[in-house]
Design a protein that fits this description.
Blueprint (H helix, E strand, L loop, with lengths): L2 H4 L13 H19 L2 H16 L3 H9 L3 H20 L6 H12 L12 H12 L2 H10 L4 E5 L6 H14 L7 E7 L2 H13 L8 E5 H16 L1
Helix pairs in contact: 2-3, 2-5, 2-6, 3-4, 3-5, 3-10, 7-9
The protein binds S-adenosylmethionine (SAM).
Length: 233
């Protein structure tokens, strides 16, 4: 077997610093020119997120139910956007907060206050991740000695920029297999943010989907309330 046959595209990614703004502009343009097909900005963005998640989670019934109710042209646009995200995050491994940037650009065009968040610019997240993680090799050695994974928790995760930046730094410094020693947790009160984060984390973590827990803060609150009620009764 020669070297090229031996290569596994997931085993040795080059974390690129490609033309990220071009991808964002293309996605925004696709939504912008066609948002009337979705019945408004918020819908346009959420439907793209929902369909992407149904596809990634293999929720075929929900996927079919949603596309049957959509304009066919909107379905085509959505699949173009999903394809772009897959290419940059999953194949090219250009880790960056695309959806957060798309969200902010769409929010600036929309009159609705539903999309009302601002996220930390990705280069600042990268700098913060470097400071926060420190020496990654020694973090991993310590976690191996203690037979556990290093947990990274973002309590107000937004589109996941901080978690993505941590991943990027880990991969850059110790390679993709470094992620084996980490687990990522995120929560947010805004379901749109949870969806964005979930998509970007899944697409950059193909082999490690299981070490990711993302939960909508309200879901978490309900679970705690139910647990408390059952412990009282
Ligand atoms: C300014 S954004 C920052 C997001 C992300 N940490 C970043 O740096 O890009 C603040 C985030 O906190 C979330 N948030 C606000 N109150 C929250 C709460 N009580 N519990 C969980 N998330 C909350 C918002 O929905 C929003 O996504």
């Amino acid at each position: 077997m020669n070297n090229s046959e031996n290569q596994n595209p997931w085993s040795d990614p080059i974390v690129c610093n490609g033309d990220t703004s071009n991808t964002v502009n293309q996605i925004v343009k696709l939504i912008e020119h066609n948002y009337y097909l979705f019945g408004g900005w918020t819908n346009a963005f959420e439907q793209v997120l929902d369909l992407t998640l149904y596809a990634l989670n293999r929720q075929e019934d929900k996927y079919m139910e949603t596309i049957r109710a959509m304009d066919k042209r909107a379905v085509t646009i959505t699949s173009q956007i999903v394809g772009m995200l897959m290419k940059v995050l999953c194949y090219d491994y250009c880790i960056w907060d695309y959806l957060g940037e798309v969200y902010m650009q769409i929010a600036s065009m929309s009159k609705s206050k539903v999309l009302g968040q601002f996220f930390t610019p990705f280069h600042i997240c990268e700098m913060m991740a470097k400071v926060q993680l420190g020496n990654i090799k020694s973090l991993i050695s310590k976690s191996q000695r203690e037979n556990r994974r290093v947990s990274i928790m973002e309590p107000c995760v937004g589109s996941g920029a901080m978690l993505l930046a941590c991943k990027k730094i880990i991969i850059e410094e110790v390679g993709l297999s470094g992620l084996d020693h980490f687990e990522f947790f995120g929560q947010d009160i805004d379901p749109v943010c949870v969806k964005m984060c979930r998509i970007q984390m899944i697409l950059t973590d193909y082999r490690y989907m299981t070490n990711l827990l993302l939960i909508h803060a309200v879901e978490l609150q309900n679970k705690i309330a139910t647990a408390n009620e059952s412990s009282v009764s």
